[in-house]
Amino acid sequence: MVETQNSQPQDQNPSDDQPKRKRMHWCRDMRFPGDIISLPAQVRRSLRRGHYEHGEAEAALKLIRKGDVVLELGAGIGFMSTLISTQTRAQAVHSFEANPGLIDYIREVHRLNRAKKAHLHHAVLGDRDGMATFYCREDILSSSLDPTDGGADTTPAQVPMRDANAVFAEIKPTVLVCDIEGAEVDLLPKLNLSGLRALLIELHPQWIGSKGIKDIFQLLHEQGLVFFPKFSSGKVAVFRSNW
């Protein structure tokens, strides 16, 4: 669906100095601008059809309860943080996104949708405070911390890194939402997840392999988070501590 802003009555012609009309992609009653960054065609199509991040969205709507504090790793285009802020009873959602090319877009998505409970942090989480190298790609949503997953279009950028456990101690999340393009296999072992009620993660077997999947399941089980198949689907896995 396309929303047109600054439109003129049919019997008038817009003057040259008036703002251009903006394309808006709608999904689950949320608006996503089409004129700030170049969204991949697959993303635009998925938004229009209402299928974008379907598994994660359905799981979040079922999983998140009144008063939950959600920490999101990998904000993408701001879809999940906006959904959680506007369509669940979460107290707050703190989203961490490393990609410098997405920060202004996410802020605009939050503003357009009045996602007042969403808090955006431009940083990657790691084992200390400092800086990290992030690899930006032509397909903006394929950018990652992995220098090998790309090609000639890969451009490195230095981005802020926050001490992950210090962030957890400060925010005190009850739910973790994680979609970080395969980096989950390196980051999760560094985290103290004992305070979580639940974790929602999109796994990336194409990058971490069967061993990576096995290691994540074992790690979460050891930290008291057990796979919850009822809310899981495909590569989207939900883990809970209290069932």
TrEMBL record:
<dbReference type="Pfam" id="PF02475">
    <property type="entry name" value="TRM5-TYW2_MTfase"/>
</dbReference>
<dbReference type="GO" id="GO:0016740">
    <property type="term" value="F:transferase activity"/>
</dbReference>
<keyword id="KW-0949">S-adenosyl-L-methionine</keyword>
<keyword id="KW-0808">Transferase</keyword>
<dbReference type="InterPro" id="IPR006342">
    <property type="entry name" value="FkbM_mtfrase"/>
</dbReference>
<dbReference type="InterPro" id="IPR052514">
    <property type="entry name" value="SAM-dependent_MTase"/>
</dbReference>
<protein>
    <recommendedName>
        <fullName>TRM5/TYW2-like methyltransferase domain-containing protein</fullName>
    </recommendedName>
</protein>
<feature type="domain" description="TRM5/TYW2-like methyltransferase">
    <location>
        <begin position="55"/>
        <end position="127"/>
    </location>
</feature>
<feature type="region of interest" description="Disordered">
    <location>
        <begin position="1"/>
        <end position="22"/>
    </location>
</feature>
<feature type="compositionally biased region" description="Low complexity">
    <location>
        <begin position="1"/>
        <end position="16"/>
    </location>
</feature>
<dbReference type="InterPro" id="IPR056743">
    <property type="entry name" value="TRM5-TYW2-like_MTfase"/>
</dbReference>
<dbReference type="InterPro" id="IPR029063">
    <property type="entry name" value="SAM-dependent_MTases_sf"/>
</dbReference>
